[in-house]
Amino acid sequence: MGSIGAGSSLKWKGLFIAGSFLQISYPFEPKKNKIDRQPLLSGRPPSPFASPGRPVCPAKRPIHALTVPTPRFKPIHSTETQYLVCLMSFRLRIPQYSGKDGTILLASMLPLTVLLNIFLFGGRYFAGAAPFLSATAATFLVLGFAYLYYTYVALLLARRFPGAERSNRRLLLALALFLLSDYVLLAGMLRAYDALSFLGYRYLESDLLVIVCLCAILTIFLTFLNEGIARFAHYKRTLRETEQLRHAYLQSQLMSLKSQVNPHFLFNSLNTLSSLIPENPDSAEAFLDELSKVYRYLLRNNEDYLVPLRQELAFLRSYAYLLRERHGSAFRLEVDVDAATQELLLPPLTLQFVFEDMLEQNALSREQPLQVRLGSMGKTLVIRNNRQERIMSERALSGDANLENIREKFRLLVGKVLHIEDTPAERIIIVPLIAKPEGAVV
């Protein structure tokens, strides 16, 4: 009985140390209450989760005068039970390469642990609960550490050699490092067992050769298994993003088509043109020329995924000319974008959707003109306008939908979205721009 009790204590302490070694964090913290959690009645030991240094309520104070919070845990008196609760409360931080690393770790390392211990210790491994649990914990600790270390190495190599075209080099380098690490870790484990005379083990070179070969086969298999799972997950994610991009593109085409035949914009433009013809024929001719540029751009660019910013700005200048002729000094536009930024790419008609939303959201008047400023900041286009909101309408809500579609399109293309920041005085829209691929002609 004495040996079983000592072995049981060794069992729990070994599990507790193993949990601490595998980068595990204890998630629970005692609540900071004004009154200590210690029981008011004398003779009971304090809770192991109570914080030191807190004043204890005097026992002579009446019970009804005290406000004692309900403890989260029942008092624990057994040392082994405390070890178990702490171990169960820990949370493994397993690095994720394939997304199934925790399952693969348990499914592969536990059987391998039992198999290696049977080979190394023979019948002594099953001599009792203490030898079985202590040997299992020790060997699993080494193998689990090796698996986590290999996962970290695989993640570092994936960042160093990204892309499918460099996967062969990445796999060969990973396997070389893994197999070398197998030999070092297993040799160190056997030498440690021999030095400690763990379960009476004595080191043999033949033992090292056998378990190194066995672990090498499993290492190669698990490496290709994790790589296959990771590639399949990447393939599914790519399909999903492609479908989302296709949906966003179709939505963008639909919005472009609506813009081409937008009766509100067209009728307003024709009304402005009809009023200019008798009053100022030269201005009417210039207005008609800019109107034709706007509709030419709308008709020609609804099939492209990306266009240079300079084309969008040229379209915007024509679009702004029409707005100024219609609203006069109630609309003002300033453009200050450097030449290098103008060569970056963005989805076509982005600026049109942004400006349509801007016009729908804000009131225009000569006393309080809508002032819009465009500038560049790194690889982004910054659009600022003063806010003078008017009552929301159905068309204004439609403008919000257009902005959401553009944000989704940017998220799928460059992994970023339009950043919109509203203050009481102004709205700031930051549009991420896309670098032109080398050798591409746009």
From TrEMBL:
Keywords carried by this UniProt record: Membrane, Transmembrane, Transmembrane helix
Organism: Flaviaesturariibacter flavus
Keyword Transmembrane: yes
Pfam families in UniProt: His_kinase
Tagged with keyword Membrane: yes
Transmembrane segment boundaries: 103-123, 129-150, 171-193, 208-230
Domain (Signal transduction histidine kinase internal region): residue spans on this chain: 253-330
GO annotations of cellular component type: membrane
Molecular function GO labels: phosphorelay sensor kinase activity
Domain of life: Bacteria
Name under which the protein is recorded: Signal transduction histidine kinase internal region domain-containing protein
